[in-house]
Amino acid sequence: MWKKFDVYRETPSIEFKYQYLVIFESRNSNSFICDSFDSKHYCQEFQVHESDTDRDDRYDSLTIKISTVLPVNEPIYAVHVFLPVEFKVTTVCWFQMEGLIMTSYFSFHPGSSLQVFADLQLHQKTPLPCTERDLTYNASLLNANSKNELPKLFADYNSRNAITRLINEQTIWMKTTHNTNNTGFTTFTIDLHLRYPEQEIIYKTTFWQMIKWFLVQYLPVAGILFVICKRVRKFVFTNNVISTVQMIHSSKY
Questions:
Q1: Which domain holds residue 16?
Q2: What is the pLDDT of residues 11-47, one digit of tens each?
Q3: Which of 65, 74, 149, 245 is found 20 to 30 A from 188 (Cα to Cα)?
Q4: Which residues cross the membrane (predicted)?
């Protein structure tokens, strides 16, 4: 039977695109937004550290710290973070796309900071075609209007056959402490600690890959059967296991 799909493992190349959209929600349904698309809405602090611990020229982890100043009379009960990344695999299939790091947290208690620890994973609905360089989903996901079009962003992203998502997610929500300053503002801090583990890639096998798989699977078996048959034939005729008659054809001139 021909093998139409196959699986392999690869550590992807993932690079943060240095864009962000962060939405803070208060109890009064007021939203406070900071993003990288409008200088008026920049977060007060935005730190990024990408680490390549095994020195294979591919980042293994991403650490991001985001801090912004918010009104102290608008306690925060929910946070939504959107961070685009470039995701690429090249070993067996050449596939590149823009993925999203998305995380949301809701609490019954007002908070002053959020810490997230997670792994970034490729999620596939269909196998990769693996016939040519695939850039189908390499378009930008975030823009200046994304904060006003979140349902469209979610719908478009969810309709794709390949996306990135967070797994093994662990969060720490720090409750708001009593504010002693008189400025009327307080700082909310978000810390993200993300790892990029090895991924399992499902792909459609090409014709030559199927031929290679056929040769690897069946050629050794055919070789073994050939050797066995050759030895059986030699044993049968050498030991006269069955009667044989030699036919001699005479020629008339």
A1: 5-204
A2: 999 999 999 999 999 987 788 999 999 888 889 999 9
A3: 149
A4: 210-229
Residues 97 and 220 in one domain: no
Number of folded domains that form the chain: 2
CA 92 from chain centre, in angstroms, equals 15
**Residue pair 44/65 in contact by the 8 Å Cβ criterion:** no
pLDDT digits (tens, 9 = 90+) for 159-217: 999 999 999 999 999 998 765 556 778 999 999 999 999 999 999 876 556 556 555 66
What CA–CA distances, in Å, run from 134 to 3, 42, 63, 102?
Answer: 22, 34, 29, 23
Would you say residue 249 lies in a domain?
no
Query: Does residue 59 lie within any of the structural domains?
Result: yes
Length reported for the chain = 253
pLDDT band at 82; cut points 50, 70, 90:
very high
Residue 124's CB is within 10 A of a number of other CB atoms, namely 16
Looking at residue 243, its pLDDT comes to 61
CA 174 to chain centre: 29
Q: What burial letters (b/e) apply to 13-42, b meaning 16+ CB within 10 Å?
A: bbebeebbbbbbbbeeeeebbbbbeeeebe
Residues 201, 122 contacting (CB under 8 angstroms): yes
**197 plus 214 within the same structural domain:** no
> How would residue 247 be classed by pLDDT, with cut points 50, 70 and 90?
low
Mean pLDDT over 235-245 rounds to 62
Q: Could you tell me if 217 and 200 lie in one domain?
A: no
Does residue 107 fall inside a structural domain?
yes
Beta partners for residue 48, in sequence order? 64
